[in-house]
Design goal:
This is SET domain-containing protein. The protein is of the alpha+beta class. The protein contains 15 helices and 13 strands. The longest helix has 25 residues. The radius of gyration is 26 Å and the shape is elongated. The structure holds S-adenosylmethionine.
């Protein structure tokens, strides 16, 4: 690894990547890591400067005219995997060779590949782990955006795009390029999944040398800074010939107030310290301030011991199906009486700001957070569904708001609250539905085992079963989230 790091650092010098002298790129169990030397590093220091010309993207790769780029999502990951694969296949002929030779040689161990007989890992462990992942948040992430298994989308892209594209590229540009195997494409995909960054409107998802050597922590000390709004046609940060055809966004170039000329801004991708970094410590980045263990496991192949971003989520249709299954539906076309966007827009969620049972999520709407609190949106769907069966559609929003205020007065143990009327019985029904939802979720988790048995199973797992351990840890986390939610709503209303 030492030799690989030296080759990488030499390549960085040639490509103008500036690494602060107080940082060390060192070997690590998963490949590389970044540590500080004997000096304390202050906050707001630019520690790594990567010119965008050093970034490997669909736009910058040697097969750019053969690959259709995509701005984000799975399509972008697949396209970048193909760009990376071609550069890997080119070996020393690739202009990124010095960087590529430092990447992990085997596939990053992602759950999407756990049932494939590739990579020399024990298939038995993978199959066992996938069994435990059934019903978990991780399993939801193993479906592509179209709902089909992610592995099928990867295989289809390999057969339909990768094979013909590499053949065309080989005929026209790089004669003798060996046709890649599916395993090689999966390795490229695993590298993209676990290392790529969204660089800007031109490069999109890209491999960013050195930025991808930092490991993740929720107590991270560096973050990335980039000028995203560049010309999507040519990547220029300054005025360019495309400006006439593309409406400029405010960030496209920064007008100089004094003489109206654009300010020259370095077009680099920077790693900047956001806190002081102690001497002789590992320097961590963040792979997202809100990234849960399920997302870390699905995308990067690891999870944290404790992760405050863990949550359980539902999509709207699944939630409605659950609610409808337990009711005599009057009108299946309007299960909430009113369209969801009208209901949620008219609801004042701030009334729950100090609630012990509800919270305001930053992303997924219908969810339970790691403290077992339910999102106000999840609560509102349940409430509106109940209300829609009791009052005409035009009264659903008002009754939902009334129940929100009633809920809060009960939480605050306001003695003037009527605890015998309709609001009270509705609140009890709502609490009961939340409890049922938790129980319903648990039925699909952990192959019918309870939390204690799962804990015992985890203790029995040998270190030779790393995937099963990761999967069991995920199941146990989800169990404890749902258990704590169930317990608080059982005694909550
Ligand atoms: C962007 S790379 C970071 C550099 C990495 N050590 C390497 O050179 O392969 C992301 C990979 O690093 C590993 N990783 C990052 N943070 C980690 C952490 N906190 N715990 C365990 N593995 C981690 C995982 O294998 C992940 O897929």
């Amino acid at each position: 690894m030492e030799h690989k790091i030296t080759t990488l650092l030499n390549w960085c010098t040639i490509n103008d990547i500036q690494i602060d002298k107080r940082l060390r790129v060192v070997p690590d169990v998963t490949g590389l890591a970044v540590h500080s030397d004997s000096t304390l590093i202050e906050t707001s220091q630019t520690l790594v400067k990567i010119p965008k010309t050093a970034v490997l993207s669909v736009k910058s790769c040697s097969a750019s005219q053969f690959i259709e780029s995509s701005p984000y999502g799975l399509e972008a990951q697949l396209a970048l995997s193909l760009a990376l694969l071609i550069e890997l296949q080119r070996g020393t002929s690739s202009r990124w060779y010095g960087y590529l030779q430092s990447l992990p040689e085997t596939m990053v161990d992602l759950p999407v590949f756990w049932d494939l007989e590739i990579g020399g890992r024990t298939l038995e462990d993978g199959m066992e782990a996938l069994k435990w992942l059934r019903g978990t948040e991780v399993q939801k992430l193993l479906a592509g955006p179209d709902g089909n298994p992610l592995i099928e989308s990867i295989r289809n892209y390999f057969n339909e795009i990768v094979v013909p594209t590499t053949a065309r590229f080989s005929i026209k540009i790089a004669a003798g390029l060996v046709q890649p195997t599916f395993y090689q494409f999966c390795r490229a995909f695993s590298l993209v999944s676990s290392r790529a960054f969204l660089v800007d409107a031109y490069h999109g998802l890209s491999m960013v040398p050195i930025a991808d050597a930092f490991n993740h922590s929720d107590d991270h000390r560096v973050h990335l800074e980039t000028e995203y709004e560049v010309c999507p046609e040519c990547g220029s940060l300054q005025q360019c010939p495309h400006d006439q055809s593309i409406e400029l966004s405010s960030n496209h170039f920064t007008p100089n107030n004094s003489n109206d000329k654009p300010i020259q801004v370095d077009d680099t991708y920077d790693m900047v310290s956001n806190a002081t970094i102690s001497p002789h410590s590992e320097v961590f980045n963040t792979y997202g301030e809100t990234t849960s263990n399920a997302q870390l496991l699905a995308r990067y192949g690891f999870s944290l011991d404790v992760n405050e971003n863990d949550s359980i989520s539902w999509d709207f249709d699944d939630l409605i199906n659950f609610l409808e299954a337990g009711s005599q539906a009057r009108d299946l076309s309007a299960p909430l009486g009113l369209p969801w966007n009208i209901l949620s827009d008219s609801f004042d969620e701030d009334i729950f700001s100090e609630s012990e049972l509800l919270f305001k999520p930053s992303d997924a709407a219908f969810c339970i957070n790691c403290e077992g609190k339910i999102s106000w949106q999840l609560w509102l769907v349940i409430v509106s569904h109940k209300c829609a069966r009791l009052v005409p559609a035009n009264q659903v929003a008002a009754l939902s708001s009334e129940l929100g205020r009633y809920h809060i007065s009960r939480e605050k143990e306001d003695f003037e609250t009527d605890i015998s009327g309709m609001n009270n019985s509705l609140s009890q029904e709502i609490a009961y539905t939340v409890v049922e939802l938790c129980q319903h979720y648990k039925v699909q988790l952990g192959a019918g085992k309870d939390q204690e048995s799962l804990g015992n199973l985890l203790d029995e797992q040998a270190l030779s079963q790393p995937r099963t351990r990761l999967a069991l840890l995920q199941v146990i986390t989800e169990f404890s989230i749902v258990d704590s939610c169930e317990a608080s709503w059982q005694g909550g209303e």
